[in-house]
């Protein structure tokens, strides 16, 4: 028996068994599994950081594949999963949801004052949606931040549906009624009838639940409505708007006309500016740029209208149209009205951009509006 034991001790099988036992004491499988998990976590971190960059830079989700290929070429291990545009969308949703949850917990813990701004719109797929923006005071940095909070789908655009969906969204993220009654300070929206109507509008429905709420109509939207009322009431401005709409249609719908205008401008050493519509559903700052473009392009426009009105290759209707546009440009009253409108729109453009500034407070907005009022009063004399 001792001889057999001695022979077994010296055998290859015994040596292999001893080696296996010693290897098992080192926890090789557990260590390898842990190392694999660490590598997977590192690749996931890289994917998440790449997706965050895409979202931060407002890039399309399809950029993820190209950015991953670039990092692989630079020698990084990016794994084999979470590399499609659908995965990118899911990761963006996950990151934003975690950031929003963390923000809400911070607000609830510190009992911060909050305000909300909402705007109803329609998506490309013709679905009703509600955009929610949060304004919160953060004492640590002593500023009021405006944060895009959520985008929810609406069943319809009735005031009751919007109000219920809005309140339900706040409850889903942890804002209960007790907190809102204590800390919800303001509610801002545009002047649509379902938002700020006279009877059963969203603002009134919210005010019934939260009586201390301060309702505010968007200052920039009020400015646009005021300008729109003036356009309807003053006949020369309506004629000016019709002229600009005609200019826009002449050059936006015909590449040939646009090319001819560019040729004339080059001959006159005039730098062309893009001509758009004015005083419509766009901000007044865009209207100011369009009027400024016509003012700067005046010589080129006149020359092009003159040449087109005498061009026998065009039919009689087109020649008459260009002759009418040329006569309109030559009218001294038209030039004076356009110059007056340009001066007014430049002032309104400055006011509009200041009202859009996130750092503009209500006292600042009041001071700016008062200043512009005195400027317009001085223009009368």
Automatic annotation (TrEMBL):
Name listed for the protein in its UniProt record: E3 SUMO-protein ligase KIAA1586-like
Gene: LOC136074466
């Amino acid at each position: 028996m001792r001889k057999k034991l001695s022979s077994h001790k010296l055998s290859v099988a015994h040596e292999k068994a001893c080696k296996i036992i010693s290897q098992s004491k080192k926890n090789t499988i557990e260590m390898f599994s842990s190392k694999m998990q660490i590598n997977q976590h590192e690749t996931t971190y890289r994917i998440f950081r790449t997706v965050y960059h895409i979202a931060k830079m407002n890039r399309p989700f399809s950029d993820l594949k190209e950015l991953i290929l670039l990092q692989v070429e630079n020698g990084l291990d990016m794994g084999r999963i979470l590399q499609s545009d659908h995965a990118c969308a899911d990761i963006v949703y996950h990151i934003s949801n975690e950031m929003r949850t963390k923000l809400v917990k911070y607000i609830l813990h510190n009992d911060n004052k909050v305000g909300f701004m909402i705007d109803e719109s329609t998506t490309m797929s013709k679905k009703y949606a509600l955009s929610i923006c949060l304004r919160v005071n953060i004492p640590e940095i002593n500023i009021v931040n405006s944060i895009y909070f959520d985008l929810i789908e609406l069943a319809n655009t009735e005031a009751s549906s919007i109000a219920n969906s809005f309140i339900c969204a706040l409850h889903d993220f942890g804002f209960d009624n007790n907190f809102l009654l204590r800390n919800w300070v303001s509610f801002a929206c545009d002047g649509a009838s379902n938002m700020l109507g006279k009877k059963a509008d969203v603002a009134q429905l919210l005010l019934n639940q939260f009586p201390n709420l301060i309702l505010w109509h968007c200052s920039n939207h009020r400015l646009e409505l005021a300008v729109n009322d003036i356009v309807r009431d003053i006949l020369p401005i309506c004629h000016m708007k019709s002229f600009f709409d005609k200019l826009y249609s002449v050059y936006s719908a015909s590449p040939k006309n646009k090319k001819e205008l560019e040729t004339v401008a080059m001959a006159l050493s005039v730098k062309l500016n893009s001509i758009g519509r004015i005083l419509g559903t766009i901000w007044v700052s865009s209207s100011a740029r369009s009027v400024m473009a016509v003012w700067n392009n005046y010589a080129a426009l006149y020359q092009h209208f003159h040449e087109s009105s005498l061009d026998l290759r065009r039919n009689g209707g087109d020649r008459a149209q260009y002759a009418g546009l040329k006569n309109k440009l030559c009218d001294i009253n038209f030039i004076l009205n356009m110059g007056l409108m340009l001066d007014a729109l430049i002032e309104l453009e400055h006011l509009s951009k200041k009202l859009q500034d996130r750092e503009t407070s209500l006292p600042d907005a009041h001071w700016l509006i008062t200043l512009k009022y005195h400027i317009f009063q001085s223009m009368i004399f």
